[in-house]
Amino acid sequence: MSKAKIRMAMVGGGEGAFIGAIHRIAARLDGMIELVAGAFSSDANKCKATGELLGLDSSRCYDSYQSLFSAEAKLPTDERIDFVAIVTPNHLHFPVAKMALEHGIHVLSDKPATLTLAEAKQLQAIIAKQQVLYGLTHTYTGYPMIKEAKHRVKASELGTIRKVIVEYTQGWLSHSEDEGSKQASWRLDTSKSGISCCMGDIGVHAANLAEYVAGLEITELCADLNHVVDGRSLDDDGTVLLRFNNGCKGVLLASQIAIGDENNLRLRIYGDKASLEWSQLEPNSLWLRGHNQPSILLRAGVGELHPDTQNALRAPAGHPEGYLEAFANIYRNFAAQIHAFKQGDHVTNSSFDVPGINEAMRGMAFIEHVVASSKQDIKWQKLQVG
């Protein structure tokens, strides 16, 4: 017997919003989720127009997220939305998630989860009280070969981790004239983006990926953030030294002024037995290198790979799988988590491989401590989450 589709609403993602379309593609890729409602824009006409383009019932295209949750909560349980995808600028992530959770509606939010760590802690308390699900779209954990890398580390193929280097460099904000787009303008606005642009936008992704694959937690950091383009009040570049809970050290490099770089996310992890390397520019490849041994190139869909890797694959070997599929893996896992929740099962984010409130809080702690460290003469900051 087939399962009923999980019903989704979206807040944000209207006309001109790049990430909203990405979320919608990812949500429908596996046929498990149906978009049935939304508050796509604060402009009621734009919201209705977006809904019409998506083929939605006009009565479920709302002029605000407040009216969306109030109306949907009154519908019968077999009609109301199961979860909401939040794809707004950062400053709205917290109030939208808070109201949804308080109405018993599950949440899948873009990162960073909130503007502050204090807000993330509030969400944690609401989640525990309301007994609802919360997911965070740290997209890059959805790549099949990232899952393979994680399990190779967990199986001790690298031995004891000694060094972690993660880089996320882009060039799309290299000049002041690049600030005219909608995507750029809000990211450089402190009232909408928060206390950081570069680290809050892509540095937090790099930190999450390093922790996810290495199976370690950042415990201390030392940061040097830059405002390279004149007139900017938020960072557009930065370097962070890292200390992890097993004693090893690492480096995180994030930049949005690296001319010529498109979306250059690269991870290297070095153990005392071997090392691995992965790049988003060639996501189907994972390099495994031993000491004084030939390098091994692991390819998606080829040979014996971990079951989690196989489950994340969608095409035969040689067919590139990328950003959209990685995004879809998170949506599919979250839908499976909701199905299990409906059956009364005790579910955790880790059991369904969905980034959750723990990652949300660690991400906000990372951003706040990086900014604080960069401002101080005494650079090292203990990463305190709780």
Can you describe this structure?
Helix 4 (93-102) packs parallel to helix 5 (117-130), helix 5 (117-130) runs antiparallel to helix 12 and helix 9 crosses helix 12. The termini are far apart. By secondary structure, the chain is of the alpha/beta class. It has twelve helices and 14 strands. It has helices at residues 18-28, 44-53, 65-73, 93-102, 117-130, 144-154, 182-187, 190-193, 198-214, 307-312, 323-342, 357-375, and strands at residues 6-12, 33-39, 83-87, 106-109, 134-136, 161-169, 218-226, 237-244, 249-255, 264-271, 274-279, 285-290, 296-299, 381-382. The mean pLDDT is 95. It has two domains: 6-140 and 328-356, Rossmann fold (3-Layer(aba) Sandwich); 144-315 and 364-375, Dihydrodipicolinate Reductase, domain 2, CATH 3.30.360.10. The strands form two sheets. Strands 13-12-11-10-6-9-8-7-14 form a nine-stranded mixed beta sheet. Strands 2-1-3-4-5 form a five-stranded parallel beta sheet, with helices on both faces. It is globular. Helices cover 35% and strands 22% of the residues.
How does CATH name the architecture of the largest domain?
A: 2-Layer Sandwich
Mean pLDDT comes to 95
- Any idea what the shape is? globular
The biggest beta sheet is recorded as: 9 strands, mixed
Number of strands: 14
Spatial strand order of the main sheet: 13-12-11-10-6-9-8-7-14
CATH class of the largest domain: Alpha Beta
Regions with pLDDT < 50 over 5+ consecutive residues?
none
Which structural category fits the helices and strands?
alpha/beta
Helical residues, percent: 25-40%
As for the CATH topology of the largest domain, it is Dihydrodipicolinate Reductase, domain 2
The CATH superfamily name of the largest domain is Dihydrodipicolinate Reductase, domain 2
Helices and strands, in order, run as: EHEHHEHEHEHEHHHEEEEEEEHHHE
Strand content: 15-25%
What is the number of independent domains?
A: 2
Task: Specify the number of helices.
Answer: 12
